[in-house]
């Protein structure tokens, strides 16, 4: 049997793939549509793209790759919202466009398990979190752990972690899953959970697509609140800002959501992530910034939310007051909104990934890091006050907020710093193609600063170029990660775009 390559050789090989031959597309446009991603930084052209109409189609493809003397890579693509080609399948591989299963697979089914008392949603790995929300709300239910942006696929975020301001309370999305159906790198379709095939279950969650393609996830649901009190508070002092954030993630009767961000001349208060402030509020913030004399032109902003419904509508204002009373923000710089739950969860509007119209030039050289709490003062001095303040190109949102490690499950593949509390940094730069290199240098400067200062950061949505960097990333868990790969994907077929086992 030959190997899967473009052109006529492929025609010979796929004669054995009669079930899916008409769903494998080789034409330039189809292949181009999966060669790029949200980052718009890496162009990696696969041999073909599979538009599956069933799970069996994906199994056929993976089994076929296994039969080849030199197997080809197979990469599931949720929405292609990676920024460094993580869902790509260069070098003769095939991208599985999971979106083709929408409307054909199980969709999102809401149920109740009388033995555990859990409500849950069974969602296809290809489903968008926005669709999970809509389906659950029809039953007055909702997942508890989210990403800031809901037009991401279930399989894509569960392969990373799925984090947002709810993670401190409920853990990341990966810790709110009861069961998975997974197609392994050998082409076996397995159900796994805490109790069945648990090695596979824990490996796949946060496993960067290395062990299997998630085709169904059973997601925990709770009774949905209906509205959200959405508060932002501004700080000029970093220590006070982080002390208050840590207070919020530890207090009883505290918020349901806590995040934070930086406001700088290059990273204004309103941005694509949310336009929270009215124009009069913006003027108030701008005039404060002009009067401010702390020299580095930075403001820090806490964002917290408390949900409520009809039953708690009478007491929610008192509850918010009690929370705010404990905090030391700049007097007068508190801003509040009262919005329906869906408006809050859906606050980040759908991002255009169409590269054909005016989008060609926009790139997203993002950097996401977890920073151990014990070093955040050094991190602020070295990264925010020095490196970021020195660079003067307009960039994008800069997120910085804490999480509790105890809400993560160390049996899962996702890696976080070894401290009870760690912060998430999200440097969500948007840039022109010409400036992308500049932001890469900025990102590298930050990583090098942390290395030199002994700040043991971990990358989230990681991107490394060498095996050594991956080994360092996983630390003592590298061996298990590698052994599990050998068990479930021994021919190194899955998600080659992560460049862990396929250099
Ligand atoms: C605007 C925007 C906002 C974001 N906000 C957040 C946020 O708030 N919190 C957060 O945690 N992340 C956030 N992300 C990052 C997001 O979680 C990642 O991009 C993630 O990869 C999900 O995107 P996707 O569904 O498009 O997956 P893709 O980029 O298509 O895939 C990512 C990886 O997962 C693998 N994969 C995809 N589907 C499956 C599957 N079914 N089974 C197994 N492996 C699979 C791919 O092969 C690839 O390796 C954001 C991204 C964008 C663009």
Structure write-up:
Among the domains are: 8-100 and 485-498, Uridine Diphospho-n-acetylenolpyruvylglucosamine Reductase, domain 2, CATH 3.30.43; 108-223, 2-Layer Sandwich (Uridine Diphospho-n-acetylenolpyruvylglucosamine Reductase, domain 3); 227-345, Vanillyl-alcohol Oxidase, Chain A, domain 3 (3-Layer(aba) Sandwich). It is 28% helix and 22% strand. It contains 15 helices and 20 strands. Strands 5, 6, 7, 8, 9 and 10 form a 6-stranded antiparallel beta sheet that branches. The protein has a 4-stranded mixed beta sheet with strand order 1-2-4-3, with helices on one face. It has a 4-stranded antiparallel beta sheet with strand order 12-13-11-14. Strand 8 and strand 9 (189-193) form a beta hairpin. The radius of gyration is 23 Å and the shape is globular. The model has no long low-confidence stretch (mean pLDDT 93). Flavin-adenine dinucleotide binds at residues 38, 75-82, 86-87, 98, 125, 147-149, 152-153, 155-157, 159-164, 208-209, 213-214, 351, 461, 495, 497-498.
Q: What is the molecular shape?
A: globular
**What are the segments in which pLDDT stays under 50 over at least 5 consecutive residues?**
none
Tally of separate helices: 15
CATH topology of the domain at 227-345: Vanillyl-alcohol Oxidase, Chain A, domain 3
Range of helix content = 25-40%
Small-molecule binders:
flavin-adenine dinucleotide
Number of strands: 20
Alpha-carbon Rg, integer: 23 Å
**How much is the average pLDDT?**
93
Briefly, what CATH class of the domain at 227-345?
Answer: Alpha Beta
User: Describe the biggest sheet?
Assistant: 6 strands, antiparallel
CATH architecture title of the domain at 227-345: 3-Layer(aba) Sandwich
At the fourth level of CATH, the homologous superfamily of the domain at 227-345 is FAD-linked oxidases, C-terminal domain
Strand content: 15-25%
Distance between the termini: 24 Å
**Structural class from helices and strands?**
alpha+beta
């Amino acid at each position: 049997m030959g190997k899967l390559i473009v052109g006529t050789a492929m025609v010979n090989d796929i004669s054995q793939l009669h079930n899916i031959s008409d769903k494998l597309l080789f034409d330039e446009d189809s292949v181009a549509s999966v060669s790029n991603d949200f980052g718009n930084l890496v162009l990696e052209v696969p041999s073909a793209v599979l538009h599956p109409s069933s799970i069996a189609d994906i199994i056929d493809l993976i089994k076929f790759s296994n039969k080849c003397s030199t197997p080809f890579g197979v990469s599931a693509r949720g929405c292609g919202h990676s920024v460094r080609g993580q869902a790509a399948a260069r070098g003769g591989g095939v991208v599985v466009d999971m979106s083709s299963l929408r409307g054909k697979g199980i969709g999102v089914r809401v149920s109740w398990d009388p033995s555990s008392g859990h409500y849950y949603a069974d969602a296809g790995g290809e489903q968008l979190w926005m669709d999970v929300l809509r389906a659950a709300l029809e039953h007055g239910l909702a997942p508890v752990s989210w990403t800031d942006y809901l037009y991401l696929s279930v399989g894509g975020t569960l392969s990373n972690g799925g984090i947002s301001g709810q993670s401190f309370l409920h853990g990341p999305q990966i810790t709110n899953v009861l069961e998975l159906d997974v197609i392994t790198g050998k082409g076996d379709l397995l159900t796994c959970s805490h109790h069945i095939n648990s090695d596979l279950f824990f490996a796949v969650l946060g496993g960067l697509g290395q062990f299997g393609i998630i085709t169904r996830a059973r997601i925990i649901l709770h009774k949905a609140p209906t509205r959200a009190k959405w508060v932002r508070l501004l700080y000029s002092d970093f220590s006070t800002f982080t002390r208050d954030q840590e207070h919020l993630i530890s207090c009883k009767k505290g918020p349901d959501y806590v995040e934070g961000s930086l406001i700088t001349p290059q990273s204004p208060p309103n941005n694509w992530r949310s336009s929270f402030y009215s124009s009069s509020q913006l003027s108030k913030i701008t005039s404060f910034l002009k009067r401010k004399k702390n020299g580095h032109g930075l403001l820090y902003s806490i964002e917290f939310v408390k949900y409520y419904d009809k039953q708690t509508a009478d007491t929610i204002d008192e509850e918010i007051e009690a929370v705010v009373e404990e905090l030391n923000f700049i007097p007068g710089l508190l801003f509040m909104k009262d919005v329906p739950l869906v408006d809050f969860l859906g606050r980040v509007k759908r991002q255009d990934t169409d590269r054909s119209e005016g989008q060609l030039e926009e790139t997203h050289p993002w950097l996401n890091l977890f920073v151990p709490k014990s070093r955040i003062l050094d991190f602020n001095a070295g990264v925010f006050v020095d490196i970021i303040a020195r660079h003067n190109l307009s960039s994008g949102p800069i997120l910085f907020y804490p999480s509790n490690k105890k809400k993560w499950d160390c049996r899962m593949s996702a890696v976080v710093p070894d401290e009870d509390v760690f912060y998430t940094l999200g440097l969500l730069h948007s840039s022109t193609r010409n400036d992308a290199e500049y932001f890469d240098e900025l990102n590298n400067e930050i990583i090098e600063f942390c290395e030199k200062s002994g700040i043991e950061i971990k990358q989230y949505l990681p991107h490394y170029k060498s095996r050594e960097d991956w080994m360092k990333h996983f630390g003592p868990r590298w061996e298990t990660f590698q052994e599990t790969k050998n068990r479930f994907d021994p021919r190194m077929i899955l998600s080659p775009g992560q460049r862990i086992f396929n250099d």
